[in-house]
Amino acid sequence: MLFGIRIIWRGPNVNCVDSTGYTPLHHAALNGHKDVVEVLLRNDALTNVADCKGCYPLHLAAWKGDADIVKLLIHQGPSHTKVNEQNNDNETALHCAAQHGHTEVVKVLLEELTDPTMRNNKFETPLDLAALYGRLEVVKMLLNAHPNLLSCNTKKHTPLHLAARNGHKTVVHVLLDAGMDSNYQTEKGSALHEAALFGKTDVVQILLAAGIDVNIKDNRGLTALDIVRELPSQKSQHIAALIEGE
């Protein structure tokens, strides 16, 4: 099988593309075929060819969670893989790995000096995505490697806002313990606004216990209490009572 690949793909055809813009290297990286990746790289397969979505083989290997193939793509082959290359959504390979909780790939990419402060089209960093999807170990890894990420925020959101919105209690605890400012204000207010609006009672309690300022207002001039008072559900009324109790 591998001998056949050497014959068929040697030379220019090794970098041919299909209708999605995939080269053979894209397919091998996505499907976890390490041996095929090695053969392709030895036969001049390029790692810097993007598919129709702007993804390089490195993005696909990171998304898949294959640390061995990620290492091969970075260190072998005729072309130099750029670990900070972004796809059409401005996502790096680190975004892909962080979102899906692939800790081994995150470790490799951090060792290769991937920039964790880069933002995608939604202004999300890899830490934002890890917090949003509750990837606790990735959150810890990113904070340990780059504590400065705690203050790398925008007016769109913070990792704390995103974790609060989705009710990821442990991630919220880790971010607060690491020193993230619970009172940081975005367009949507504080993390308390997010937790209250989305009915995450446990997170509301955590934030209140951490001393979050209940008087912070969003860009409409509303506090978190104002928002939940407008909502009819029993959970919202319970959250309102918790906030009023502060």
Give me the secondary-structure topology.
Elements: H1 2-9, H2 24-30, H3 34-42, H4 57-64, H5 67-75, H6 93-99, H7 103-111, H8 126-132, H9 136-145, H10 159-165, H11 169-177, H12 191-197, H13 201-209, H14 224-229, H15 234-244
Helix pairs in contact: 1-3, 2-3, 2-4, 3-5, 4-5, 4-6, 5-7, 6-7, 6-8, 7-9, 8-9, 8-10, 10-11, 10-12, 12-13, 13-15
Model description:
The chain is mainly α and 246 residues long. The protein has 15 helices and no strands. ANK repeats lie at residues 20-52, 53-85, 89-121, 122-154, 155-187, 187-219. Keywords: ANK repeat, Repeat.
What's the number of helices? 15
What would the average pLDDT be, to the nearest integer?
Answer: 93
Strand content: under 5%
Question: Which regions are unreliable across 5 or more consecutive residues at pLDDT < 50?
Answer: 1-9
User: What is the rounded Rg?
Assistant: 22 Å
Order of helices and strands: HHHHHHHHHHHHHHH
